[in-house]
Amino acid sequence: RLSSYYTHPVCTPSRAALQTGRFAHRCGLAFPLVGAPPGGLDPECGRTIGEVLGDAGYHTALVGKWHLGHAKKKYLPTRRGYDEFFGLLGGGFDHFAHTAAEGTRDLMEGEAEAGQHLAGTHSTDLFTRRAEEVIRAHA
Questions:
Q1: Sign of the CA dihedral with 56 first, then 60, 66, and 68 last
Q2: Active site residue 67
Q3: Tell me: the pLDDT tens digits for 91-103?
Q4: Which of 8, 27, 67, 70 is catalytic?
Q5: pTM value?
Q6: Longest CA span, the chain
Q7: CB 33 within 8 A of CB 68
Q8: Residues 64, 127: contact at Cβ < 8 Å?
């Protein structure tokens, strides 16, 4: 029984715990993924909420920030239970250009880079529109 609120102070561990229901250190993600890390949310850590809901017959979509690794395909949200993904894989980016600090584009549609035609639109607006589309399509 959960009677208190438990969280991590930074993004990667919080996301790992939310996705798996486990403490992030048990998944090897006790600290934020910085730069081009080789690790990520490995399937050996356990099933994600996307996998559990997908197995129960739900359509699953993740819109927004993943930040749980992308060095290997097995870490991608579309390989971890999500039918759809639209967002950034890394820890942060320019919200209008959709580029990470090193200048690489990090706005993804599934496992491919989203179109350059989206540059200039703030990511919050893009994410809101996509989330609304997913909800309308599967309501």
A1: positive
A2: yes
A3: 999 999 999 988 8
A4: 67
A5: 0.92
A6: 48
A7: yes
A8: yes
The answer to whether 80 and 49 have CB atoms below 8 angstroms apart is: no
Given this model, what pLDDT does residue 35 score?
77
Identify the active-site residue in 11, 45, 95, 117.
11
* pLDDT (tens digit per residue) in 21-80: 999 999 999 999 987 788 999 999 999 999 999 999 999 999 999 999 999 999 999 999
- Structure token digits, residue 5: 């609120």
Contacts of 3 (CB under 8 A, 6+ apart): none
Is 95 a residue of the active site?
A: no
Contact 88, 56 (CB under 8 A): no
- Tell me which residue of 83, 86, 78 sits closest to 123, measured CA to CA: 86
